[in-house]
Structure formats: C-alpha cells, structure tokens
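Protocol step 4 of 5: obtain the predicted structure for the target chain.
Materials: sequence only (see below). No template structures provided, no constraints applied. The aim of this step is simply to have a reference model before the mutagenesis design in step 5. Sequence pasted as it appears in the construct record:
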Amino acid sequence: MSNADEQIRQPGEIAKGGKVLYGAPLGILMLEARFARIPGDMGNARTWPFPVLYRVVRGADPERVVRNGADGLLDAFIEGARDLVDLGAEAITTNCGFLSIFQNEISRAVGVPVATSSMMQVPWVQALLPEGQRPGIVTISSATLTDAHLDAIGVPRDTPVEGADESSEFFRVIVRAEKADLDVVQARADVVAAARRLVARHPDVGAIVLECTNMAPYASAVQEATGRPVYDIYSLVTWLHTGLRPRVF
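Step 4 output (structure tokens):
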C-alpha cells in the first residue's frame, strides 16, 4: 500500500495531489499492433500484479521499430512518455526491446526512471554468473539488432545473440503482421527453438535474456528446455515497480 493510500485511510491526514491518475505508477509505451496478446505478454493487463498505465504510440508498428530502426519515431515516443508522466507515471518502460536505441533520449526528456529494454538486464546477469559463463540474448530479429541498440544500454557487443526464424509463426505474426491470431503452441516452440540454438552454438551461455517483450509468456518453457535461468521484460518491470512501491513489512 502506498503512502498516498495510507493517508486516505487515516482521518485527519492530508492526501497528496498533483496527478491525474493514482495507483498506477508505471507507464508503458505500446507499439501499434493488433496481434493477440496472451497473458504474460506486456500488452495484456492481466500479466501484471499491479495496475499500469498504457499509451499507444501511433505509427510505431513492429515492422518499423524492429526492422527499420524506429526511424522517425523518437519524437512520438518522447511525447508519449511525457503524456504518461503527466498522467501520473513515476517510471516509464516500453513494449519493444529494440527501443533501447532511444534509452538516453527518452530518459533525458522525461526526468523519471526509464527502462526501454529487457536487455538492460544483461550486465546485471553477467555479474551473477560464475567465471567462464556469460548471458546470451534471444531476440525476435538478430539481423537488425545492431551495436547501437546494445551500446545505448551498456550491453557488450560480443554478447551471444540468436534470433527467431523469420519463417516462424512467432515472427510472421509479431513482426510481419500476416495475421492477428496466434498459434500459441507453435509460437512457444519457435521461441524455445531459438533458445536451444543459442546454447548449442554458445555452450558458455549460463543465462538467457529474452529481448522481445512478446516472448515473456514462454520464459518458463525456455528455462525448462535449456536448463538456464531466463530473464525477460516481466522480471525487469516487476523489479522496476518494486523500487516505486517497496513492500511494507
């Protein structure tokens, strides 16, 4: 329970104002897409154990963000982040790991904590692993994940990366938008296959970070298939929210 909630429940106390909306300190910038968002997906509100604020960035479709470097979209994302902060968000995150390329610009523009990509966890995970092991990344598109995306959030350029098969169900629905319905069983198999390729090619990978926010529903399947710890947008965002609303003991 937040301090504001406590104040409201205690007669004679002054409840702090200044926001438009209360009880949802985390704002999420969403891509504009129509594919199915199952529980575990960032865009399914049931995923989160706390309320969140959403803002769709018009024109920011997955193809443009993932395959074209989010070209021309920086101002729109900054505007969206500012809108969320104006509504009451105390921290901002985004709906695509490829938006790491805007980490510094959005952070400077809004003046609150910003976490654009689950890949921000890579340096943290490296610190956890024993000598001789390193984290690896499973991404939706290894062909377009560039050094610029990694540099912006402090991820080493030599981090092992494996992408989803571009002919797969997962890629065709999420990036190419060939259909709105998603074969969940096949999508899970596609993400697991990419993770297996990663550890087969890089046996020193001791933990996996899922770049794509749409991969979070399959994190447990990836962990079971590879035997490695798995980190994703859910682990990042729940950690971020914990700092905004620490548990009261």
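Step 4 remarks: Residues 184-201 form the longest helix (18 residues). DSSP finds ten helices and eight strands in the chain.
Proceed to step 5.
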